[in-house]
Amino acid sequence: MTPAAAMRLAIEQAEQVKGSTYPNPPVGAVILDSDGQIAGVGGTQPVGGPHAEVMALQAAGDRAKGGTAVVTLEPCNHHGRTPPCVDALLAAGISSVTYAVPDPNAEAAGGAQRLVDAGVTVSPGLLADEVEKGPLREWLHKQRTGLPHVTWKFATSVDGRSAAADGSSQWITSEAARADVHRKRAAADAIVVGTGTVFVDDPTLTARRPDGTLTDHQPLRVVVGMREVSLDANVLNDDSHTMLIRTHDPHEVMRSLGDRTDVLLEGGPTLAGAFLRAGVVNRILAYVAPMLLGGPITAVDDIGVPSIVHAQRWRFDGITAIGPDVRLSLVPN
Ligand SMILES: NC(=O)c1ccc[n+]([C@@H]2O[C@H](COP(=O)([O-])OP(=O)(O)OC[C@H]3O[C@@H](n4cnc5c(N)ncnc54)[C@H](OP(=O)(O)O)[C@@H]3O)[C@@H](O)[C@H]2O)c1
Question: In a designed cystine with 271, which of 2, 199, 267, 317 is the match (CB 3.0 to 4.6 A)?
């Protein structure tokens, strides 16, 4: 197997554990034996458990000796809740390490240098772009800015409406698109809505499998607004934890979620407008249905753009067909 193919497999491993590793990064690793065959794969386990490299080494056993480790993030070099991954790689007799992204965290960095010093061949940067935009996107943002990464996700008709005139919005998009949203939720740390969405839709805001059962990891549910939420509201059921934040200030919401990494903003047009005005949205995921609704309920309220020259400019970084719908991914221009 080529190193690039092994890295793609490591990226898949990382995607699979996304959401379950908080506050650690979701990392994937593949061990190739000395003949270049896959000997073991692994992903980061929930906090306190083994990191990806250790999982993959355990799966590889003796076949790791003289082999290559392919990892999405530079192997760590510090004693946290678990021993340094560099120690495990050296103890297993790995002779070369290929990784995608250097560790930006000063405490954990230095792994590559220690491996080089120990005589291991180290190749950084393989598919770094894919890893940075993919499984490590939110974690890297948190490391660089200290703030959670916010994705505004919404479903819209092709004419930019997020509900019909009577407020009903279930469902604009197909089952396939909604299943995709549930996968995103299962990987997120928190889902944020305003009280308006809770009153109109009474959503549960859980991550569910296609058969309706709850996924293992449930994000924190966050409701923003001054109005009292009824104890009967689905968002207060026992399926997950819920935080009620009495504010209209997106920055205060961000502070309340300061220890989180991956936040999904799923509110209606009012909250989405407030977050966009405040400049705290890092990515947009628009699920666009081939449907026209017309009427007054647009996907987003006023975002403080008085004229076209002041438009918020974003750029598409992914366009994906999902069933009959399209998922548009946008990042700031
Ligand atoms: N298509 C979609 O993806 C989607 C997603 C969600 C909702 N929806 C639809 O959107 C509609 C609900 O819209 P909405 O705009 O009322 O929902 P919302 O944005 O979720 O909630 C609005 C409420 O949030 C609070 N709030 C928080 N920050 C605010 C701020 N800076 N300024 C003003 N209010 C703030 C206010 O509550 P208080 O008055 O309590 O302070 C406000 O009434 C429903 O028809 C629903 O079906 C569609």
Answer: 267
Is residue 275 lining ligand 1, measured as CB closer than 6 Å?
Answer: no
**What is the residue with the minimal CA distance to atom 30 of ligand 1?**
248
Best mutation site among 152, 202, 248, 256 for ligand 1 pocket (most ligand atoms within 8 Å of CB):
248
Rounded to whole angstroms, the Cα distance separating 90 from 102 reads 19
> Are the C-beta atoms of 264 and 151 separated by less than 8 Å?
yes
3-state secondary structure 222-268: EEECCCCCCCCCHHHCCCCCEEEECCCCHHHHHHHCCCCCEEEECCC
Residue 118 CB coordination number (10 Å): 12
Tens of pLDDT, residues 106-139: 777 789 999 999 999 999 999 999 999 999 999 9
Structure tokens at 120: 């291991």
Give the span between the Cα atoms of 322 and 179, in whole angstroms: 10
273-310 pLDDT tens trace: 999 999 999 999 999 999 999 999 999 999 999 999 99
Reading the block at residue 44, the tokens are: 């980061």
Whole-number Å distance, alpha carbon 294 to ligand 1 midpoint, is 19
Q: Given the residues 53, 74, 138, 266, select the one marked as catalytic.
A: 53
Query: pTM higher than 0.90, yes or no?
Result: yes
Q: Is 15 a catalytic residue?
A: no
Helix spans in 18-125 (H)? 52-60, 85-91, 111-117
